[in-house]
């Protein structure tokens, strides 16, 4: 799903294309939306900040309140997203049936991002802000034309993909027989989501352009509620059916239409907020001669770059579903395929969505203003502050996942059709994902700095580097690892790719700011790493000891997790509080100012 963030209007450097960056996590927390967040590369135009009051009593407080609102929406969405994910896994398990559903539900998101989403967010949507400033009617007519044109494109794309569902499924999964027929049927029910994904993106950005991003942060909760109700109904009528040969047509129809209904509710709920913002959309087909041609022609490169990331995701999906089929034939059991990978990744992204994205939302207007004023030292001060405060939360979360992954996945997912072996496989994948969390979140903040400096080349290169590294390492994992460990190794490959992709943006950002002193930021990361590493070791030993006393199960895992979390917090929180009081953790502003310009 497209990300929700406050957009500030500004100008690009002459002759430069808009920059691509990883979008933040999807608000509803689905695995499909997570991949979009990882690779959609939605473009945000940095604000010049000219004339904007960023004092504590001016727009600065407004930005803080806006960031807090987005963070609160993300937290509530994640909580309902956990319930949604848990009930889906409880209903479908982690075997081939679950893989078929997840492929069918993910494909619409992939195709939307690949064919429409990247261009929509990167090229077309910023024109709304320009039109609002340029046109006498405040951009009303331009908005009508843009929404009409995009809706027509989305309808055409949806019709084509529904007709081509069998070929699309074959491209993403090597399923045969009843499993393939089931996945194709589910895909036909789910592919109309393309239209509603696009409509949600478009309407939310119209609201953003009018300074009202809040509703789009909260309406995904309705999507979660609808899907929870659908799968609760399925659990009641299916009686444990979780195989392609056990479900009937009505049950498949319930899952497919119900999932699409959730996205439709999410999108259509924005309509009343548009009217409250004074937007009265009307269909307009007089597209020629009104400024739509140039942005549409510029969209081609955005689609091409998004395709690079999507190839990497397609490859992972194809390899993971192939592993699941081979493991099923070999009698290895469930929990080693695409569904386990997607659910582990879903848990992994949560701290980034709640902490890093909220920090970036609050800091970006200040970073942009400092960049526009030529105060590069102040740019570094704000980015360094974000990196330090981000580290205080993200580094412990990464170690927490590394030490307690199986216990966490047992608490969240070990219900209904999901066994202890399934959740253990997910937990080990979460452990493999864990090291990449720090690099992923730090890279997100550093790319915000590149946007403010209006250097789009670095994020583009980072996207390509990460995608290529992840693809190569995933293929190596598939070829070299045993079936039971292949997808876990792919999670490790994704994590390693994030670390590889961070190196170039970090080095270029430091050079762009004339080699500012990064030592304070590194010291904070090292201090938190030592504290979190010690806590992780103690928590892991506690979990291993108590696991011998209690049998497997979500209740026992929850008690272990509770005790280990207390140990973890007792060792990490004092260090974090001390670092928060140090100047280094507040961004090293004095050091940075001495190096500005």
Task: Describe the protein in words.
The protein has helices at residues 31-39, 59-92, 96-124, 126-134, 140-163, 165-172, 177-190, 193-209, 214-218, 220-238, 249-268, 271-276, 293-329, 338-372, 376-413, 420-433, 436-452, 457-480, 483-512, 519-547, 554-581, 589-594. The chain has 597 residues and is mainly alpha-helical. Helix 18 packs antiparallel against helix 19 (483-512). It is globular and about 65 Å long. The two termini are 39 Å apart.
How would the blueprint of this fold be written?
Layout: H1 31-39, H2 59-92, H3 96-124, H4 126-134, H5 140-163, H6 165-172, H7 177-190, H8 193-209, H9 214-218, H10 220-238, H11 249-268, H12 271-276, H13 293-329, H14 338-372, H15 376-413, H16 420-433, H17 436-452, H18 457-480, H19 483-512, H20 519-547, H21 554-581, H22 589-594
Helix pairs in contact: 1-3, 2-10, 2-14, 3-7, 3-8, 3-13, 5-8, 6-7, 7-11, 8-11, 10-11, 13-18, 13-19, 14-15, 14-16, 14-17, 15-16, 15-17, 15-20, 15-21, 16-19, 17-19, 18-19, 20-21
């Amino acid at each position: 799903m497209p990300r929700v963030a406050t957009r500030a209007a500004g100008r690009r450097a002459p002759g430069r294309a808009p920059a691509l960056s990883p979008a933040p996590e999807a608000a509803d927390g689905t695995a499909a939306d997570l991949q979009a967040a990882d690779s959609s590369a939605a473009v945000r135009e940095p604000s010049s900040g000219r004339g904007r009051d960023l004092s504590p009593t001016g727009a600065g407080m407004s930005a803080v309140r806006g960031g807090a609102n987005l963070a609160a929406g993300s937290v509530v969405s994640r909580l309902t997203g956990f319930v949604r994910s848990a009930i889906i896994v409880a209903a479908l398990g982690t075997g081939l049936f679950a893989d078929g559903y997840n492929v069918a539900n993910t494909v619409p998101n992939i195709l939307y991002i690949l064919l429409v989403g990247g261009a929509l967010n990167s090229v077309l949507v910023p024109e709304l802000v320009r039109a609002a400033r340029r046109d006498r009617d405040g951009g009303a007519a331009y908005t009508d034309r843009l929404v009409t044109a995009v809706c027509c494109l989305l309808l055409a794309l949806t019709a084509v993909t529904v007709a081509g569902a069998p070929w699309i499924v074959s491209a993403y999964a090597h399923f045969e027989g009843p499993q393939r027929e089931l996945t194709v049927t589910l895909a036909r029910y789910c592919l109309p989501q393309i239209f509603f994904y696009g409509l949600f993106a478009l309407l939310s950005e119209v609201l953003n352009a009018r300074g009202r991003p809040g509703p789009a942060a909260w309406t995904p909760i309705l999507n979660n509620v609808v899907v929870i109700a659908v799968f609760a109904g399925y659990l009641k009528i299916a009686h444990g059916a979780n195989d392609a040969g056990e479900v009937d047509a009505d049950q498949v129809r319930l899952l497919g239409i119900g999932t699409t209904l959730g996205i439709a509710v999410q999108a259509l709920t924005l309509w009343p907020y548009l009217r409250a913002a004074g937007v009265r959309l009307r269909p307009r087909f007089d597209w020629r001669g009104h400024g739509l041609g140039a942005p549409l022609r510029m969209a081609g490169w955005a689609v091409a770059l998004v395709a690079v990331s999507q190839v990497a995701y397609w490859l992972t999906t194809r390899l993971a579903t192939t592993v699941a089929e081979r493991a099923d034939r070999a009698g290895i059991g469930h929990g080693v395929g695409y569904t386990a990978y997607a659910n582990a990744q879903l848990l992994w992204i949560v701290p980034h969505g709640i902490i890093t994205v909220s920090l970036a939302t609050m800091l970006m207007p200040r970073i942009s203003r400092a960049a526009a004023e030529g105060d590069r030292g102040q740019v570094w001060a704000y980015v360094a502050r974000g990196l330090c405060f981000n580290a205080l939360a993200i580094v412990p979360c990464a170690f927490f996942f590394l030490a307690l992954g199986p216990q966490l996945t047992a608490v969240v997912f070990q219900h209904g059709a999901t066994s202890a072996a399934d959740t253990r496989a997910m937990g080990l994948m979460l452990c493999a994902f864990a090291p990449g969390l720090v690099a992923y979140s730090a890279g997100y903040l550093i790319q915000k700095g590149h946007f403010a400096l209006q250097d789009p080349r670095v994020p583009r290169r980072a996207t390509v580097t990460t995608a290529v590294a992840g693809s190569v390492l995933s293929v190596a994992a598939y070829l070299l690892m045993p079936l039971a460990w292949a997808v876990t190794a792919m999670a490790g490959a994704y994590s390693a790719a994030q670390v590889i992709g961070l190196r170039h943006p970090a080095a270029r950002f430091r050079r762009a700011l004339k080699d500012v002193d990064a030592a304070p930021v590194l010291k904070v990361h090292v201090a938190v790493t030592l504290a979190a590493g010690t806590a992780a070791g103690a928590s892991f030993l506690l979990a291993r000891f108590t696991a011998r006393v209690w049998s497997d199960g979500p209740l026992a895992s929850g008690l272990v997790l509770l005790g280990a979390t207390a140990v973890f917090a007792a060792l990490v929180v004092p260090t974090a509080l001390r670092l928060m009081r140090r100047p280094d953790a507040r961004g090293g502003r004095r050091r940075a100012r001495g190096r500005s310009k």
